[in-house]
Design a protein that fits this description.
The protein is of the alpha/beta class and about 200 residues long. It has one domain: 3 Solenoid (UDP N-Acetylglucosamine Acyltransferase, domain 1), CATH 2.160.10.10. It is about 15% helix and about 25% strand. It is built from two helices and 19 strands. It has a seven-stranded mixed beta sheet with strand order 2-5-8-13-16-18-19. Strands 1-4-7-12-15 form a five-stranded parallel beta sheet, with helices on one face. A hairpin with a 4-residue loop joins strand 18 and strand 19. The longest helix is centred in the first third of the chain and has 16 residues. It is globular, with a radius of gyration of 17 Å.
Length: about 200
């Protein structure tokens, strides 16, 4: 897989320094053990921004969502992310403040509750830990309880059905479902709808 990242421990820019690592771990501990469960949306979003995430305007993330490597997360504007999702941004390269993003989510994306993004996996022969960045383009709609593996691109306007395992790229406007995901149709939409939804205290 061409998107797979192998870190070179002898490269001085491959890993963050100890202070950057400490700051990143503080963000993970604070957000996932405390902030994600409190009822104020602006506190959750601004905490993620403080620890390095890029999040657009009018995006909301509901309570109980876990974020790993916050600085590896980029989310566009007017996105809706449900309860208890896992947003894993560990497929990053470079120094802490200048890293590539491990998980990039475009604008007006809807991600239903209990969906997991998993960028890491192991080589079954050597057990070497590998990771690959994930890209979710604009207007993608992911239904509940899906799993999106690393290295995947979900094309603009794609729809992922309930409880689907996505292991390969999904074309723009395709509708996929199953384990593993298979194309079951093509979406017909002008992709001009509004995805903004922010319930109080959620």
């Amino acid at each position: 897989m061409s998107r797979v990242i192998r870190l070179d421990p002898d490269d001085p820019d491959a890993l963050p320094n100890r202070w950057e690592r400490a700051w990143a771990h503080l963000g993970i501990l604070l957000y996932n053990n405390l902030i994600t469960y409190q009822p104020f949306q602006w506190v959750r979003i601004n905490t993620l921004r403080l620890f390095g995430a890029s999040i657009g305007q009018r995006t909301h993330i509901l309570r109980g969502t876990t974020v790993i490597d916050i600085h590896g997360l980029e989310i566009g504007s007017e996105c809706s992310i449900g309860f208890r999702c896992l947003l894993d941004g560990r497929a990053t390269v470079g120094r802490y403040r200048h890293r590539t993003r491990g998980l990039t989510i475009g604008n007006r994306v809807v991600i239903a509750s209990d969906t997991h993004f998993l960028p890491g996996f192991h080589d079954p022969s050597t057990f070497e830990g590998l990771r690959a960045p994930t890209l979710v383009e604009d207007y993608v709609w992911i239904a509940t309880r899906c799993t999106i593996e690393g290295g995947v691109v979900l094309g603009r306007g794609a729809v992922v059905g309930n409880s689907t395992l996505v292991r390969k790229d999904v074309p723009s406007m395709a509708m996929v479902a199953g384990i593993p995901a298979k194309v079951i149709g093509t979406r017909e939409s002008d992709l001009t709808y509004d995805t903004f939804w922010r319930p109080w205290f959620q």
